[in-house]
Structures are given as C-alpha cells and as structure tokens.
Amino acid sequence: MERLGSSDEHLKERYVRHINLKEIGIVGQQKLLDSSVLLVGVGGLGSPIALYLAAAGVGRIGLIDSDIVSLSNLQRQVLYRESDIGKSKVDTAKSRLLKLNSNLKIDTYPIRLTKDNAEEIISNYDIVVDGCDNFETRYCIDEFCDRLSKPYVYGSIGEFKGQISVFNYREGRRYSDLFPRNDSSRLSTVNNVLPGVMGVVPGVIGTMQAAEVIKIITGSGDVLINKLLMIDLLTMNQMVLEI
To answer: What are phi and psi of 180, to 5 degrees?
Structure first.
C-alpha cells in the first residue's frame, strides 16, 4: 500500500484537503489508503460511490456487477458514456476510475453476488457498500456481512426519494431487522414495469453512502448506526429515524 511518509509530497498534495481536516489528517488518510471496500452494483448508486471512494484514496476497491451498459443507464449512471453502451460495467468502471486515480487497486467481478460466492468475495474486504437494486442481493449482503463481521453501508432509491443506513457495525442492527424477509410489501414492481427515478437521486444518496464509508474508515463523525436517513428531493424534506 502507499505510505504517507514525510518525503511523499505527491500524496500529501493529492490529499491535502483531507489532511487539513482535523477529523481526518494524515492518520485518517493513511487509513483510507490501507482500506478495502467492496461495491455491490456499479449503476446509479454505484457510480458516485465508486468515483468518490476512488478520489478519496481508498486503496482497494472491488466492483461486482454482471450487467452491461445500456442507453437507459446514461440518465443517472455517471460513470458511463455513450461509447460504453454494450460494454461490461465493471470493466468500464475500472478503466474510468484508474484514470481518476492510477494508484488504486481495483478488482472486478462480472457476476452477480450469490450465496455461492458471497463468503469468498466479501471476506477480502473491510466494508461492503450496497449499490444494488434488488432485495435478494441485499439479504445476501446482510447475511454474509453478519457472518463475517463486516459493516454494510446500505442505500436505496425510488422516484424522488432515497434512504441510507449502516448495518452490522459496532453491534448495530441488521438490514433484515429493519426489513424482514417475510414482509410482503417489499415485493418487486408489478408487470415488470421499470420504476421511474429522477437522475440526480442516486447521485445524492450514493455520495452520502461514500461519506459513511469514509467516516467508518477514518473514525470521524457520527455514523448512521441504528438510524435510517430518508430524503425526498421533490420536497427537500429529510428525516432520521431511530431503528
């Protein structure tokens, strides 16, 4: 891993705006450089999460997504361009992120996260971030983060709204505590109609998820443990619920 030694002026210049924060400083930035984060889903939420974690200097980032870039993605998935249509999301994302920060180590998994591969993959990372769009994958993340004692940074979006929490951190609650599997209200949309979403919503929520990751790694601020942050961008109403 990179080291922020006394003679490494390049790294100090790159991360100076972090280093100048008393809550992060050189020690916190070194923690970011030494950390590893798995991002499950590199779409609407995953785009800002990946960009900001890469920019922050998270040393190792895992990207898992079986999808390819499509035209309808471009309204909100800011990692991608028109020329990327038809290409693997994880491969395209890796190329883009390395252009932002060439010092990163990026692992790619062009597959879905399942019970068959989750333990092997998740065990290699310090934190798991949810950038997916389905309940089954979230329950899989929840199960294996609990089994492996990994923090789970959750985010979800729909229409003009989004929500964020941090599960399985410092003996906090799990995703399945808040959203039990037998809750019939969490079924998929009817008739396979794609739900609408304003393009900036995943940008806002994903950026907040990245902030929670940075806070966990550096030990700064108040993390959303046993709390659910909910925001409606149509009204700009925001609330934090105790869970």
So the answer is: -60, 145
